[in-house]
Every structure is written in C-alpha cells, then in structure tokens.
Amino acid sequence: MSVNASCRSVCPERTVSSLLAGRVVKRPKVEDGQQLQEAAIRLLQQHQDVGSLLREVENLNQSRGRGGQSKEQRSAASAGSPSVSAGSLLAGELRNQAEQLGVPVTVVSVKMVMERLMKIITAAEDEDGGRQMLTPPQRLQLCVLLESSRGLKSQGVFCAELLWQEYRREQKRPSLELLYHLHIFDLLSVNYVLLSDEGVRQWWVSQLQSLCCWTPPQTEDETRVIQHQVLSKLLGVLVETGFDQSREKTAAEKQVSTQVSTICCCILDSMLFWVLGQVDLKTPGPELWIQMFDHWVSGAVSASTEAVQRFFTHSLTQTLTYKPGLTVSDAVSQQNQWTFAKSSRLLTSLFCKMSMTFSSQQLLHHLQQVLETHEVNWKHVLSFLSTLLVYDPCTQSSLRELLSTLLTSAFEGYDLEHMITAFLLARQGALEGPAIFSSYTDWFKMSFGGSSCHHATRKKHYLKVHVLHPPFTPVKHRSLLMEYVSLAKTRLNDLKESLEDMGLYEDVSAAGRASAQPQCPAVQDVERAVSLFETTGRISATVMEASIFRRPYFLTRFLPALLIPRMLPVKADARMRLIEALKKADKIPAAQFSSYVESCRRQRQQDRGSVCLDTSNDPVEVLRVQLQEFRGLVVGGADGDIMSQLSMISHTLSTIFPAGPDDVTELLVITVGLDSPPSPELHVTVVNMILTNFCQCLLDACRANPPNKQSLWASRFVSVLVSNRQLVSGLVHRLWELFNNQGSSLSPAHVLGLAALVVHLHASMSHSPLVQLQPPVLSTAVSVGDALGSALMCRTSSDMTFTVRLCVAAVSYGTCRGNSQQQDYVPSSFYKKLFYLIPRLMPEVRRSTPASGDAAVDESSEADLPELWSSVTDSSSSWRSTASRLWLNSELQLRQRSQQGQLSLTEWLHHELRVQRSDDVLTDPQRQEYQQWACQEFYCPRPVEHGGCGGDMEILCSHLLDAVMDQPSSDLLLQRLDHRASCLRGSCLPDIMSRLQEFLCEFKLTNVQSHQSSRADVCDFLFDFVSRRFSSTGSSELHLQHTLDTWNRVLLSLPPLLLVKVRSEGGRKTVDCSRLIQHINQHQRISCSAVGFLSFHLTAHFFRALFCASVCCEQRREEVNKSWSQISEQCPLLLTSAVLWWQPLSAMLSSLWSGVGEEEPLPEKLQLITDCQHWANSVVTSSWSQSMPSAPALLLASCLYQCCRSPGQNRQNFSSALNLLRPERGAQCRQVLVYLFFICVNRFLSALLYPKQKNKENLLLLCSDLLSVLVDSSEWLLVFTPSAEGGVYQSVNLMTSDDLSRMMPWGFYRLLLHQNTELQQRALQCPGYIHTAALCYIRLLQLFLEGQTLTDPQTEEQQILTQAKMHVLKVISQAPPAALSSAQLRRLEAQCSDLDPEVAAALSLHLDPPDLSPEMDFL
C-alpha cells in the first residue's frame, strides 16, 4: 500500500498538527530520524491543499488568543511555539509548489493569502452591505491571517506589495481598516499605497467620508474604538507625510517626497472641503473628522509639532478662502448673521481645533496675510474672528493693534482695501457685545475723533484728493464743485504744492514730507502701472483717466519714463505688454513710439556686440561657453589670453549678478542666511556651473604641473569671483551646504577641487568681503575661508572622514602652492581640525607628536613636497597615507606651535564634546585611550603659551570644568546651526566627566603625598572655580540659576570626598568644612527660593562628603559631631534641609556609618535631629512632658514646622503647640517661636512668588497665629530687619535667596494689615516697632519703583502700598517723641526725602522735638 493510500484509510481527517502531536507519544529512535523525516516529507508532498495548511496555522495562532495583542507580545509569544513549526512547513510547501509550477514562490503565497482575505471581506459584505468595518470575529480572523502572512514574509516567501496589487484588482473601493491593519502589522506602509496607487485620491477620500459617516452598532464598543484609531492613524500619517519638512533629503528623495506630499495635501483638502460643504447640516460625519484633531492635544497622533502647525496654517487658509463669492457689500448687509451665536457649531468647532496650537496674535497676523494676498470668503473670515474673540480674551487687544495697523496703512498708503477691511473687522467685533469688544461707536470715536488720529492735520491731503478725485455731484450743483476746485488749487499754490508735480499713485498722506519725495514721481507711477497691468491684464483706470484729465503730465512725464530705451527681451514682459496695450488704445503718439522702437533696436545691437558671443541672448549659455574656453587656456594659455577671457567672464557675471546701490568697492560685510535657500534659481545654476568648472580646471592643471609650477590662473579666477558681492554670497551658501550636508557623497576629485577653491578664497581675503553667518555661528564677521571652515563638523564618523579628507587636501595644496610664494594660503581653522582629527583617527601618529615646544623640527622637507602632492593626486592612494606624509612635514609642525594654527586644550574639548558616541569612529575603549593620551601626554606637559597646561594638573582640571559647564549653551547653538543635531543623542560628555573625575582624584592624591602647603587643595580649587564662574555670569537671575543647575549636575557626579578638606594639625587629622558652608550660603541659596530647601540629592551628597572626610581621621565620631555643630551654627539652609529629608537620609547615613567599620549608632549631634523630631511630635500632639532637647533653636523650629505641616495635623494642633511654647516660658521657647515665625513668613512669601504652590491661605493663618503670640516681644521685628541688625537671628537670612529676602517688607505689611485693630495696636506698643514699620515702608516703596512686586490675588499692588503708607503715618502720629533715636530719625528722613516727602515731613513734625532724648542713640 502506498503512503498516500495508507494516509487516507487510516486518518482521512487528521491535521498536520495532530500528526505531529501523535508522533510525540511514540518517539522514533535516533538512528531512524532520517527515515522518519523523509517519510514525513513524502507525506506532506501528497497534501497539496496549502489553503487548509494556512487555516491550520491560523487556528494555532487563534487558539492562543494572540489576535488582539501588540506586536511585541505577538513576537515574544510566537518564538518557540508550534505555529513556528507549522509556519515553516507551510513555507516549505509553498516553495515546493512554486518549484513544480515554475513560478515565484511569492505568487503562490499571495494567491493563497488573497483567497483567504477575500473570504473574510466577502463575508463582511454579505452580512451587511452598508457596513464600513469588519465585525469583531472577522477582525480577529484578519489579524490572525496578517500575523501568519508576516511570518511568511520573514521567511522570504511573501510579498505584501504584490498582495495589494492583487487586492486592488478585485476591489475598486479598498477598505481603510484593511490598510490600517497592514500598516500596523508592518506589512505595507501607507506611504507605499499613496505613491503606488494611481486612483488613491478618489477612493481614499470617498472611503474616509463613508467611514466618518458610518455609526457602529451600540453593542460593538471595540469597533467604535478601532474606527477612531483608523481615522486618527491615517490622519496622522497624512499630516506627517504631507507637511513634515524637517528631515534632510537627497534629490531623488525630494522628488518622491514632493509627489507623496502633494497627494496627502489633496486628500486633506478634499476632506476639509467636504466638511465646509456641510457646515450648515447637522450630520455626524464631519463632526467625527473634526474630533480627530483633538488627538494632537492628547498625543495620540504622532505627527511633529511643526507638521501640525503647517497643516493647521494651510487648512485655515483654505477655510478662509473657500468659495469666495460674497462681495464687501454682501458682507456688510449679512454681517449680523455671522456672529458667534448664530454661526454653525461645526464651523466654530473647526476654527477652534485649527487655532489650538497658535496664539491669538499669530492667528490675527495670518488672517491679515490672507486678507492681503487672497480673495476670501467673508462669512468664514468674520465667523473666525468672532470665534477668536469669544474663546480667547487676548484677542481683543491683538485685534485693536491689527485695526490700528490697517488704518495706518490705509492712510499712509492711500489703500482703500485696508480701510474697508478695518471697518468690517471692527463691526464684527462690536456685534459680539461690549463684554467681548468695544462698541462700533466707541471704536470709531477713538480711531477718528481725536487730534492724534491718522488723518488729522493734513490739509494738503484733503485738497489733493478733492481736486484729483472729485466726488459725484449732480449737474445742477456742478458749478459749486468747479468753484471749490478752483479755490482748492489756489490754496495748494499758496501752500507751494504743485498738482503737476504730483504722481498718479503718489502717497498723498506723506505730503508733509515733500522734501523727501523725488522731483518727478513718474518712475514710481510707471512701476505701479506695470505691476497692476501684470496682475489684472488691463490698463489701470488711473492711467486712462490721466491720459484725458492730466494730459500734460501723461505726455511729458509718464510716457517718457515708460518708454526708456532698453534691450528688449525675446519674450515680451509686462512692461512691453503695457506699452502695446497703450499703443492699441491710441494713448501713445506715433512719433514718440517710433523713436522708442528705434532706440531699443540700437541698444540691442550695442549690448549684443559687447556681451554675446552668438545669436543667443541667454547669459547662462554665454557664461557656459566662456568657462569652457577658459578651461582650454588654463594649461599652456598665455597670460594675456587668460586675463582677456576673465574680463569677459567678469562682465557676464555682472549681468547675471547686477550690483546693487550698496555694493561699493571698499571692504563689505555680507550676510549669508544658512536656513534659507539662495534665490533666484538662476543664481544657483550659475554657482554650480562655476564650481564644476573650477574643479575641472584644477584637475587639468594638476595633471600637467604641481601647484607650485602652475600659473596664476586660479588666484586671478577667484579675484573675479570675490569682486561680486551677490556671487560671493551664493558661493558661500552653496559651499556651506556641500560641506555640511553632502560631504560624504563628494568624490576625491570634487574634494580636491573644492579644497583648492577654499584655499584661494582665503588667500584673497585682503580684497574680498567679510562674511556674517545667520544664525550667528561665529560671534563676528570673518573671512570667507574661516566661514567655510565652520561648516566642517566633527560629530560623526562620516563627518570626521570628510573633514579630514578636505583639510588634508587643502593643507597639502596650500603647502605646495604657498611654498614658492611665501603666502598664507590655508585658513587656520583647517589646520586646527587637522590637528584634532589626525591623532584621533590615526593612533600611530600620536607618539610622534611632540608635546613641548622645544622639539627640533626638520627644515629640509621641501624636497618631500613632490611626493606629498603625488600622494594627493594618486587615485590609488588613500587619505591616510597622505595624512601620514603631511603630519611629518616641517611646516605643519611649525604651524602647530604658532599662535594662529595651534589647537589649544579648550578648542580640543570643544570638538570632543560634540562627538556623538553612538556614531563615533572610535569604540568606547579606544576613545578612553585617546582622551587619556590627549590630556595626560599631550596637553598636560605642553607649555601654556602653546595651548597646554605646563604640567599643572590644576590648569587641566580647570579647562575640563569650563568645557563641561559651557556644554549646555553650546548645544543650543549647535541645534540652531544644524537641524540634524536634534536627532542625534549621546555626546561625549560622560567620557569627559570620567576624565575629570580621574584627574581630580589624581590631583588630590598628589597633593596629599607631596605635603606642599603652597599647593591649593582640591576642595579650595573646586569652590574657587565655581565662584569665578558665578562672578563672570552676571547678575541676571536666569543666568545665575542656569549656572547653578549646571554646576550641581557636575557636583553630584564628583566624588564626595573632594568637597571637604582634611587638615593635618599637630599630627592629628581634622575635618574642615568651612568652604562647603561658604559655598552653600553664597551660591546654593539661589535655587532654594521655591521650596526653601536643598534637594535630597544635594543634601545627601554633602553628608556623604562629611562622612567620607571623617574616615580619614582617627576620631571619626568627634569630627562628625564638631563639623555638624559648625554647620548648625553657620549653615542654616543645610540644617533645615537635613530636617526635611531626615527619614531617608538617616537610613542612608546609618548604612554608610556602619560601612566604615562603626558599630555604634550615628554620632550624637546627628542623633539629636531624631530627638528633636520626637519632641516636636509630642508638642503638636499636646503630650509634651519632658524637657526641651538641648539643641539649636532653629533645629527645634524646623522640626516643629515639619511636624505641623505633616498629614493629619490641623490648625488646632498648631495653636495648642503655641500655647505650650509661649514666650513667657523662657528665652529658648521665645527663640524657637521667632525662628518658626520666620520659616512660616518665608514659606508664605515663597508661595506668593511661585503661584503654583496652593497653600497660601494656610500659611497666612499660621503666621497670624504666631504673630498673636509674639506681638508683645520685640524679637519678632528682627525677622524683617537686615542681617547686620538681626543679632542672634541674623542667620535666618542665609536660609533663603536674596530675592526672597528683599520681599520681606511686602510680607511685613501683607501680614500686619491682615490683622485686626486690637493686634495692630498691641504691635504699636512693641519697642522698636516704629523704626521697623518706617524702614519696611521705605523698602516696599523701592520695590514698587523697581517693579519687583508679588502676585497676590486678594490684594492689589497699589492697594497694599496705600494702606502701608496710611499705617506708617498713623504710627508716626501716635508714637511718643522718644520712639526713635536721633541717628535713626536722621537716616529715615534722608531715605524718605526723595521717595516720599510726606512721610519725611511727618517724621520731622512728630518725632523731631528739640529735646530729643540722647539716651535712645544707643539703638
């Protein structure tokens, strides 16, 4: 019996999986494995139904419930599963069938998948003909099928593109859900469908509309979610593809991208027009499409912000210009029907979605641009304005500015359209009501009723308008009009204003500036008439009227300016067409026209004889011929012929790049915009032609002679180029683009030619303009060579390779060329990049690089120049061999020691920090080895005058720290310079930080071992460094904060041991943390304003520094206790921060303490923090029965504050705690309350200064409760006085920033004025209150004058100042004469005399009696 027959008889219905499972029960022997495999293959070959096999694979996947899983889950689950084996069998069977049929295996697999796919889709259509999406079971089947297809694709037996082609033959209206799943399963991208499907625009739009209009059944929530996902995903792809312009593309990619972008824009525009066509119909489809725009706010759509903004800008323009059929008169009559309340909800919702990524000022600016450049749909324009006014309150002020701008433009430019636009927009705003915008009457009065309005004081304006443009007058009153015109002309003559000198389009609003106008405005009239004719195709009505009513001006001034002889172009331009139209209208006399034609003919003959070489008048073709002829003269041509040809080339270039009025012969600075492409396209073509010709000429010349044997053709050619300012700008822009974006694609011939061109451009800098790049890559204008040198990047391996190739070619050419002429040919930036890259890319040359300046240099290398140049031009030679020869050149070694060419350590760090580690040519170990060589072996021993460190490790560490600190700001410049930088991640900053850690540790170890007292400790070095950085930063709060943030990141990466000094005194080592305390008090206070504490990371790092330093001492516990006592007295910010973070901090410190071999608990001074926290908790819970811990009052107050602010505590507990700590119980209780009062006031001011904090009211109540307890004691006043007068409390000023300390006067009056009259009267009786109140008022007034106030929603700024003044005057009037000492009184009077004379007079009147008590002077 055959295998096939036995299979049918024994198991006719069993599947492959069951067969495989059955074989597991009875395992074959090892020696029978091959026989079993052959039998299985024969069995499977008889089973030719691959469709059943595919369904079996699907069943395996479906049984595991993986249809709705993510791609990652499906991939993980499929690894090692039986479906993999079944999929492999299916792939093998497909290959066998394809081999038997003689067709590609992808054809067989696509046919199989297509049959299955059509069954699923046909089943969906049979169930419900109007259904737009699959049912959940069908969707599961589709996902399983696509999962299996992806497995086949991974094995190379399936082609999704072929499947789509077959599917499109079957389906004229493809399913968007299928396309979505194909995209999600990574089988077929949407971009492929957009590009390959010819009818994509028609079916895509119709399917999108149908899908939007279709509503899933109420029981299918999953289908509704999938519907939204399909729409949002496709919308995101369309927007990202159609409007993303961020990525750099090649020419081929640009062509494909433009084609796909056009298709996407058409689809999106069609959907937008469909929505706009149904704004008045309440259909759900357009609303669902508009809802998809919300996904950009939630982040569900992955389009870039720039693409979304471009899409919304484009859509807004299309909406405002959609079907512009209404005239201005229609808009005026129907305007009241287009308010926000009467507009379609769908339309206003669309406007809101399109406006959500822009400010109102940006939207109104765009609206103005649309109104000026397009014919608009006034209904949409005015509805859009109403929507903006209603939804955004800022629109009101922006609209007023826009209206003012339009009116100014209307009056100054005599622009009626701007006037009408302003009226319509103002009317629309007024229709929304006074709460939204001022009434039309008020706006009109404000715009036209005052003496400062746009049209005031313009007598000449009105008279000229009335004479030249008389209003319509009935026949019976025509005599009155003529009499008025006669009187107006007489008045104009009296004002010395001639109507005959006035142009047709003269700016009559500028009549008062007649001296600035040209004597004859005919030229401006001609330009305006030509422009209008080019736009409309008709002769301007103004010109036709002038030919009748102002005929003298028209014949004697306008026509001569129009008929200026010139060389007429081959194709008629707008000026020629206007002349022809006037000739046909009999507006030009025949004799005058004949004279014009003859003059143009003579002009054409003269120009052709001097410029053109043939009958063609295209200057580009002329230049092409001239350059080809010049190429033939480069080798063997006589100097006279070369100069003659260059003269003709120069003349042709001046025709293509005409000199402007600002192009003078002296040295100029040209600005080259790197972000904007050069224009027009003609200039780009000419620049490319020049670059190509120069490279060809150089190759021809180098084949004949080396550079030092050639003629001066190159320098003379470049001299012609640099004499034209526009051409230099185009050359710099094109070379920058080549060097920065296309360097890796340039051939060796291109690199050599462009390098030689840069060399000659640099050599001609004495008579060439300077270049200022925009954005400002370099701080000042530089020569052309140095500007191009800044385009050479060293970030990635491809960047480095191109840069070193170009620099090697340029330096080699300049060395060989300049050797014979003793001229500095190569820019210094090229030398520096060479000195950076060659040791980095070629390790073999590092040890041959002398670090000191005393090494001898071989001066007899001139004979090696031919070998060097032959290495450059030899096609079989690599750049490495050329670089090796060049590195040994004596001139290059001398240049490395010169001030102009040497690469300093700072510049080396600048380059190294910009290398992208992910795309570096060096591996991590290789980069570490290179950086250690550069720092330790090259720059450290190198003399300082040669850019090194002179063997001083301190200088080396200073350079490293400066480079790390400057990295963030330079990264921003790099991103503005190169958009690719934002896509790159991972600079070499971690590597440089590792080197810094290494060298700082080495610095500290060498100091410890050397025992030299003259050398600075690492701790002193670090804190001196950061102090210098802060002093050089400036006083800007933003800059100081930026510097501190950067420093803290560096600080946290350094070993803690470096932050605290260990002194050796009398044979005993002690810890000295004075510099750390000074650093915290001086600099770290800058960042504590918002929270009043140091961060946990900084606090823990400082404690680790203290513990690590104590390890070096014999008496560790004693040193920690002593240091913490010093910190408690001198560094309150670290003390309060330790209290805040003590719970996690104590656990970390205990672990650290036990790790250094200490079995006992933490030192006693640190344990005291825990004791104080227990005490504070007992006070708050009213269970205090023991004595107060013997701890600093600030520590107790901080613990008490943290306990009161902990969860579960309320104001009643706080009040109870205050009753237990009343000042009468002793000085320590009083000090604790004063410190607690300061902490609460400080937090209250911080909450006002940083509005994100939500506990302002609670803090104000806490302050009030404390004040009621302390009001009878004068010590609470010391909180608001300067530190010099604070006595025992002066350390409180070190707990907060200087900005917050300056706000203490605001806190004083904000708190005091909040109290009742009784408490204020008690405060008045407090000793020293009058002095504090007057001093705080003076400083509060100074804050207002400087514009430094706090935002308090319950108190107006002017209100609190007024109330403070009234309070001070009241206090002065009630205070006894002896309340102030004479010195205090004189100081207050001197300070008030200029700021507030009224308060100064009150002080003198009430507190300055002749017998002022001298005993008070001690205050």
Treating each run of at least 4 consecutive H or I residues as one helix, how many helices? Answer: 66
Shape label? globular
Record the strand order, biggest sheet: 1-2
Largest sheet: 2 strands, parallel
Runs with pLDDT <50, length 5+? 1-17, 19-26, 65-82, 508-519, 608-616, 853-860, 979-984, 1411-1419
Mean pLDDT: 80
Q: Helix- and strand-based class?
A: mainly alpha
Portion in beta strands: under 5%
Identify the quaternary structure here. Answer: single chain
Rg of Cα set: 43 Å
Distance between the termini: 125 Å
Helical proportion?
A: 55-70%
The total count of strands amounts to 4
Polypeptide structure, described:
64% of the residues lie in helices and 1% in strands. Strands 1-2 form a two-stranded parallel ribbon. A two-stranded antiparallel ribbon has the order 3-4. Helix 7 packs antiparallel against helix 8, helix 32 (619-634) runs antiparallel to helix 33 and helix 51 (1096-1111) packs parallel to helix 54 (1142-1155). It is globular, with a radius of gyration of 43 Å. It starts with a helix and ends in a 12-residue tail after the last helix. The model is unreliable at 1-17, 19-26, 65-82, 508-519, 608-616, 853-860, 979-984 and 1411-1419 (pLDDT under 50).
Task: Describe the structure concisely for a colleague.
This protein has 1419 residues and is mainly alpha-helical. The protein contains 66 helices and four strands. The protein is 64% helix and 1% strand.
List the helices and strands and how they pair.
Layout: H1 3-10, H2 16-25, H3 33-46, H4 50-63, H5 71-78, H6 82-101, H7 105-127, H8 136-154, H9 160-170, H10 176-184, H11 190-196, H12 200-213, H13 221-243, H14 251-276, H15 284-291, H16 295-298, H17 305-320, H18 328-334, H19 345-355, H20 360-373, H21 378-391, H22 395-413, H23 416-431, H24 440-448, H25 459-468, H26 478-494, H27 522-536, H28 541-549, H29 551-562, H30 574-584, H31 590-610, H32 619-634, H33 639-656, E1 669-673, H34 681-704, H35 713-722, H36 725-741, H37 748-763, E2 770-774, H38 784-789, H39 797-818, H40 828-841, H41 865-873, H42 879-887, H43 890-897, H44 905-912, H45 924-939, H46 953-977, H47 989-1010, H48 1018-1033, H49 1037-1053, E3 1061-1065, E4 1068-1072, H50 1074-1082, H51 1096-1111, H52 1116-1130, H53 1132-1140, H54 1142-1155, H55 1164-1180, H56 1193-1204, H57 1211-1220, H58 1227-1249, H59 1256-1270, H60 1298-1302, H61 1304-1312, H62 1317-1324, H63 1329-1346, H64 1357-1374, H65 1382-1395, H66 1397-1407
Parallel strand pairs: 1-2
Antiparallel strand pairs: 3-4
Helix pairs in contact: 4-6, 4-8, 6-7, 7-8, 7-9, 12-14, 12-15, 13-14, 13-17, 15-19, 17-19, 19-21, 20-22, 21-23, 22-23, 25-26, 27-29, 27-30, 28-29, 32-33, 32-34, 33-35, 34-36, 34-37, 35-37, 37-39, 39-40, 39-41, 39-42, 41-42, 44-46, 46-47, 46-49, 48-49, 51-52, 51-54, 53-56, 55-56, 56-58, 57-59, ...
